[in-house]
Amino acid sequence: MSSFKKVSTLLCILFALWAPLTAVMADDNTDQSSSSSATQVDPAVELPKMQVVLDKIKGQVSDVTDETQLGELNDMAVELGENANTLVQSLVPQSQQVDAQLAVLGPAPQPGSGVKETADVTTKRRQLLAQKARLDDQIKQANALQNGVNVLSSQILNLRRDRLKNQVSLNTGSVLSAKFWQPLYNNPIDGPKIVAFADDLKQSVLLSFSPGYRFGTVMWFIAAVLVMALGRRYMEEFLAWVSINKLSEGRLRRSFLACAIAVTTLLAITLCCNFLALAFARHPDVADDVSDLVSSLVFQSVLAGLIAGLGRAFLSTRRPSWRLPVINDDLAKALKPFPIVVATLVFIFQGLEAFNRAIETSVNTTIFGNGLTALLIALLCLMMVIRTRRIRREITVKGEDVERSRIAGLVDIALILTGIIILICLVIGYVGLARYLSYEVIWVGILFSTFYFLHALVIDSCQVIFSTNSAPGKLVIRSLNLSEKTLLQLGSLFSGLFKSALIIMLILLLMNGTISSSSPSEILSRIIDFFAGRGLEKLNLVPSHVIMALVTFIAGIYVVRSIRNWLDSDFLPQTTMDDGMRVSLVTLFSNIGFVLVLLMTLSAIGVQWNKLAWIVSALSVGIGFGLQEIVKNFISGLILLTERPVKVGDLVTISGIEGDIRRINVRATEILLTDKSTVIVPNSQFISQNVRNATMGNAQGVVTIPLTFPLDIDPVKVKEILLGAFADNDKILDTPAPSVSFKDLSAQGILLSVTGNVSSQRLISSTRSELLFEVLVRLREARIALSSPQTMVIEQKPLESDNP
């Protein structure tokens, strides 16, 4: 409860600071709001000007070769689109107002109706209709302009991506050469630019302390310090209190607290940077290059906060018992500085690149900044692995066991290889490639760490919400009137859906985003383009398409197998389906899933379906010659899975083969015989031949033993002996009761047949053997013999003439 009081005190302090901040912001914006309200935009004048600007941007894009200039043109295009959208938003209310006025005037009277209206009304309606047509035309032009801007922005993004690929392959000189370090001691081109930017930055600070802004600057600065120093700590303690007192016991507490640590750190750093930006760069007279740099730093604070938050959540040095991954305490304390260092490096060097773009530095200075970034990140990767291994050795020397998972080993290997490759690229002169790899390893780490925490939070939340013993689970049961089995099925279903969604988003972000060249809007645009299928209009077998197809195939196979395992292990066992039905559903899903993965792979490689006539022709020829049996068995397998005349677990007899169906595959069915051998039967035989299914419809089996007795036996006594042997056997069912039938009376003897039922067809053979032993023993004790088979002996006697 003390944590809650601390948070309440902090909120009161922030609220006390908010009132003067609001007043200061209102004073700061008074002049701007008055000037904007006084300025009226004429769409008839602005739309042609905006179209001219768009045409100029299009003309410049085709001639620009510099990445910085492309970024500036993209920003100009985005700003132009925002202006067009603002113009549309201002024209739509005017058009609605004209519609309301026309509705008041009503429709024009029809000729010959005898209704006349005054000239003033007619003139007013004509003016309103003309104004309505003009506004609609202007709205249409503005929307067309906005669509053109969106298309141009997408083209610029694709062009920048292609330029980045080309830049990566350029050799700009080794970091060991004097030319690389020249910007530090001899930079006549960028030196004056840096001095001028420093003057602009100094002027921005002076403007922030000018009359009317001084108090607001101080308050924003104090708010930034409070958020960073106290807000993160108290908010984290408050969320820990919520986790302990409000959440159910179990893994959900740890996963919730880990995500809370990451989020609070992210919010604290982001808000702190935003408050500092408002403190020192909110004046309208701040230079454009300073404003652009501050805006870029605010965006970079999101990445820095995310890196620092994920690192703190992973290590959790303040609460070791709540640590989500299995990490030794000494190892966690040793790794504690690295997330902060990585976040600081990303923030500084991304800010340095934004500074280079803001003042348009030379190529040598830009290459120097990129190389220094890659060098420090590579050294940091190697130092992290070296420190980790040293701590592990020290712990081992102390006699303590260090649990090291396979994933940790893979991470160490990846960091070592990445660091060595970056250093090699820097030495041989490929600075662009080294920079790309350095930011890529950070981006991959961010994505996998975020996926790890979200995956744990989703799984633990589903286990609690859909648990029959938890309060949320009981509430769901009462609210929706569900059974406990249905609740468990819903838990498995939602857990699988969320896991699949997280995996898909992880794959999309890995393939379509990187912090070295993309903003959140660019990453989102690439994801939308991926779903829209753009770029697959032609059959282009280029390396990037092949790599994309390979990634799609591997990811698709992984997703299909994960869902299949989830269906087989988690979801279907909680249903009322029998084993055969579950296996059939899993097999059918696997077949359809693999077909879809194949289609997606062909799409990713650039295959267009309306141009696949040659593939269809080739398949038809192949089916006619060699694939006929394969296709027939495949179709028969689908029929077996859907109609289910036989299913996994059934006891069948086909072509003299009797055994249990073990698996129904795409081409053939596996039958397990009693001697544990397996017979592979093509699926088409189950469709075209007679099949005996002993377990279909009725699972019980019948044991029948025919016996032949001599004619002089007592039938009643023999009947009692046989029924007694059957009744005393535990496997014989009481209902229906065993019976003895008089089958035949012949010269060989009396033929009796005794019958009993067992619970399964698979018990017939063993039960029959036991009963035969028991019947023979009881007949021998009663001195009753079975009828001996009669034989005819033909004896040839010698003739009398042959006698001597």
Would you mind describing this structure in some detail?
This protein is of the alpha+beta class and 804 residues long. It has helices at residues 2-38, 43-61, 67-105, 119-168, 178-185, 190-208, 214-246, 251-281, 288-315, 329-335, 337-359, 363-397, 406-428, 431-465, 471-480, 484-512, 520-532, 543-571, 579-605, 613-625, 628-643, 683-688, 715-727, 764-781; strands spanning 651-654, 657-664, 668-672, 678-682, 692-693, 701-709, 739-746, 749-758. β7 and β8 (749-758) form a beta hairpin. 70% of the residues lie in helices and 6% in strands. It is elongated and about 130 Å long. A five-stranded antiparallel sheet has the order 4-3-2-1-5. Among the domains are: 41-107 and 118-168, Methane Monooxygenase Hydroxylase, Chain G, domain 1 (Up-down Bundle); 543-611; 628-693, SH3 type barrels (Roll), CATH 2.30.30.60; 701-781, Alpha-Beta Plaits, CATH 3.30.70. It contains 24 helices and eight strands. α3 runs antiparallel to α4.
> So what's the overall shape?
elongated
The biggest beta sheet reads: 5 strands, antiparallel
Low-confidence spans: 1-39, 517-521, 523-541
Report mean pLDDT, rounded to a whole number. Answer: 77
Strand portion, in percent? 5-15%
Please give the count of helices: 24
Transmembrane segments: 213-235, 256-281, 293-315, 335-355, 367-386, 407-430, 442-466, 487-511, 541-560, 581-606
Domain Mechanosensitive ion channel MscS: 630-695
Membrane topology: Multi-pass membrane protein
Protein name: Mechanosensitive ion channel family protein
